[in-house]
UniProtKB/TrEMBL annotation:
Domain of life: Bacteria
Residue ranges, compositional bias (Basic and acidic residues): 64-78
Region (Disordered) residue spans: 64-89
Function: Required for the transposition of the insertion element.
Cross-referenced Pfam families: Transposase_mut
One GO MF term attached to the UniProt entry: transposase activity
Protein name in the entry: Mutator family transposase
GO biological process, one term: DNA transposition
Cited NCBIfam families: transpos_IS256 (NF033543)
Family as reported in the entry's similarity comment: Belongs to the transposase mutator family.
Record bears the keyword Lipoprotein: no
Lineage: Bacteria, Bacillati, Actinomycetota, Actinomycetes, Streptosporangiales
Keywords annotated in UniProt: DNA recombination, DNA-binding, Transposable element, Transposition
Length: 424
């Protein structure tokens, strides 16, 4: 091959250095030509829209060629057979805005395009964008306005609702998936949301989050309760988790709800029930003047971080001024004191419930903008989308594994091999 031929071949082939299908020279030529003609790169009628139109129409022509068995202007056989029958105009909403394309037709009406199916008005990227915006807490009206303002795309609220409804099937499958036989830690909490059922009322959405034996986060499920948070409904949740395969949990961290330790003991008799430290601290501040919050926080820290119990020192210092705080901790002492018997590696990850608090914060952010939901399913759908978008880059998974690795070794020792035995 001559030098000139090699050069021509290098231009004709994809850019091997970058792996791009379109070479950098061709991209540069297109951009330069668009600028010379005063053509915008984005927006309706822009360069990207024109390229999208050409690519989609070219793909559709390839599909109808495969369907008919012959190319354009070729004879389809001596007996005639099915042939092309013109085009029909169609506008599809894409991530760069609305694009009008010409969809080929066949005489017999049997052509079923795949890349832009019949009655399809949006490319999949738009659906993914709507789901992402919904997971971040935008209402259907806000999503519609955003798409119109940024992309010039007209997407109605009903269409957005239809798009988000597609996740329901996946949500049901996720909610009923099999679970691991054992978890080192299971965090239990509930989020209050407003649901209109005749009248607007607060309803709890129960969240169960677990740490796996590999140190990763696993949200086990979401459930909508029928009233205030109650231990009876938590028993229903825990029983469902057991039926889905969770035979054992080493520790269950929860708030101080009366009756919840009994519900845990009924389902997982060997589990250690630990009162959530963050809930205790938060409730303590409710009984104290704001000007004393920092002092109380410093006084309580040795109680849940010191190698030995330091409660008497705190009680003597603050008992006369804030007796309600002392009663709060003493009433929760039976579920708090087990925490003090564990190694520092375990206490470090258990004393802070950032694991579930960060999830709750994301959920609250998503539901806050909605005000209230028309149905239970609408509320559950919103929370599910928020949960599924927690770690889009995977960086959180790596941080979890790194943070929990020392604690899991301590769990294996403290709980006498229950993690390994149950797993195998």
């Amino acid at each position: 091959m001559t030098t000139e031929a090699k050069a021509d071949a290098a231009v004709a082939e994809p850019d091997q250095l970058t792996g791009d299908v379109v070479g950098q020279d061709l991209i540069g030529q297109l951009v330069a030509q668009a600028r010379e003609q005063g053509l915008d790169l984005t927006g309706e009628g822009g360069l990207l829209a024109q390229l999208t139109k050409r690519v989609l129409e070219s793909a559709l022509e390839g599909e109808i060629t495969d369907h008919l068995g012959h190319d354009r202007h070729e004879r389809s056989g001596e007996r005639g057979g099915n042939v092309r029958n013109g085009h029909r105009a169609k506008t599809v909403t894409t991530e760069i805005g609305p694009v009008e394309i010409e969809v080929p037709r066949d005489r017999e009406g049997t052509f079923e395009p795949k890349i832009v199916a019949k009655r399809q008005r949006r490319l999949t990227g738009v659906d993914e964008m709507v789901l992402s915006l919904s997971a971040k807490g935008l209402t259907h009206g806000e999503i519609s306005a955003h798409l119109a303002q940024v992309y010039g795309a007209s997407v109605s609220r009903q269409t957005i609702s239809t798009i988000t409804d597609k996740v329901i099937e996946g949500m049901v499958e996720w909610q009923n998936r099999p679970l691991d036989p054992v978890y080192p830690v299971v965090f239990l909490d509930a989020i209050q949301v407003k649901i209109r059922d005749g009248q607007v009322a607060n309803r709890p959405i129960y969240v169960a989050l677990a740490v796996t034996v590999d140190g990763t986060r696993d949200i086990l499920g979401l459930w909508v309760g029928d009233g205030g948070e109650g231990a009876k409904y938590w028993l229903h949740v825990l029983t469902e988790l057991k039926n889905r395969g969770v035979a054992d949990a080493c520790m269950v961290v929860c708030d101080g709800l009366t009756g919840l330790p009994d519900a845990v003991a009924h389902v997982w008799p060997r589990a250690v029930v630990q009162t959530c430290i963050v809930h205790l601290l938060r409730n303590s501040f409710r009984y104290a003047s704001r000007q004393d919050w920092d002092k109380i926080a410093r006084g309580l820290k040795p109680v849940y971080t010191a190698p030995t119990e330091r409660w008497l020192e705190f009680a003597e210092t603050w008992g006369s001024k804030y007796p309600a705080i002392v009663r709060l901790w003493e009433n929760a002492w039976a579920e708090f004191v087990p925490f003090l018997a564990f190694d520092p590696e375990i206490r470090t990850v258990i004393c802070s419930t950032n694991a579930i608090e960060s999830v709750n914060a994301r959920i609250r952010r998503a539901v806050k903008a909605r005000g209230h939901f028309p149905t239970e399913q609408a509320a559950l759908k919103c929370v599910y989308l928020a949960v599924m978008s927690l770690d889009p880059t995977g960086a959180g998974r790596k941080r979890w594994s790194k943070r929990w690795k020392p604690a899991l070794n301590a769990f294996e020792i403290a709980f006498e091999g229950r993690l390994t035995n149950t797993r195998h």
